[in-house]
């Protein structure tokens, strides 16, 4: 079956889909994106992703291409046409097509919207098989990593280093010797004193939607954690390390730069949170916008 993409109002076979060479996303990386996980035919954490999308648009002074309700209809339709019930839907919004000039184009230039979907593996059920390794690399990104911009070259270079090292993720260390985040993930750790920690939100990390969902789950289950940065020294001494993202879910890291983390197996905190998040993804938590509550074209809303 040919994959189908949505490009500026049209549903097209992906092999035929294209954007103008003067699209500002192509010319300048002048755009933002979002990724939603599709599990059992429904979008996970829809409201969190749409809220972050709106924030990124505001921070970039980008016009909305359509309302949330219309966008959700497009996302569902792309997923339906691609028959994706386990996988992801990707959306990208740029400042549109204009003569190449660094300053913004004239008022009224329409933003460009592209949406694609692809199949992925079902939600993992075996945490031991889901565990992985990571390396650390220097964080060389720009100063507004809180915006989900398509400017991802440093992340690409970091992820490639991880791939070449035969591990899942590259964890970024800033110039002050502190952990920021992974190249495409939020980093959590249980420190040497048994305290669950993740870095506080600021301009230097992305406000992860899975992080926010997990924080709510922690509160609901009376699991304490601290939003407090980790030095590289503290990080290397951690009892447990795990990552979160829309596609990593809760992913234990059992080796770091070739050294064993803890006893080399997913720890008790990661195991508990993995199970809690699995329940959440299966529909234990209700986190859909009202716009998602009515099934459309065969796609189920998040329950």
From TrEMBL:
Q: What class of enzyme is it?
A: transferase
Q: What is its EC number?
A: 2.6.1.42
User: Which pathway does it take part in?
Assistant: Amino-acid biosynthesis; L-leucine biosynthesis; L-leucine from 3-methyl-2-oxobutanoate: step 4/4; Amino-acid biosynthesis; L-isoleucine biosynthesis; L-isoleucine from 2-oxobutanoate: step 4/4; Amino-acid biosynthesis; L-valine biosynthesis; L-valine from pyruvate: step 4/4
Single GO term (MF): D-alanine-2-oxoglutarate aminotransferase activity
Give the domain of life: Bacteria
What are the entry keywords? Amino-acid biosynthesis, Aminotransferase, Branched-chain amino acid biosynthesis, Transferase
InterPro entries hit by this protein: Aminotrans_IV, Aminotransferase-like, BCAT-like_C, BCAT-like_N, Class-IV_PLP-Dep_Aminotrnsfr
CDD domains linked: D-AAT_like
The record's catalysed reaction(s) read:
L-isoleucine + 2-oxoglutarate = (S)-3-methyl-2-oxopentanoate + L-glutamate; L-valine + 2-oxoglutarate = 3-methyl-2-oxobutanoate + L-glutamate; L-leucine + 2-oxoglutarate = 4-methyl-2-oxopentanoate + L-glutamate
- Protein family: Belongs to the class-IV pyridoxal-phosphate-dependent aminotransferase family.
Protein task: Acts on leucine, isoleucine and valine.
Protein's name in the database? Probable branched-chain-amino-acid aminotransferase
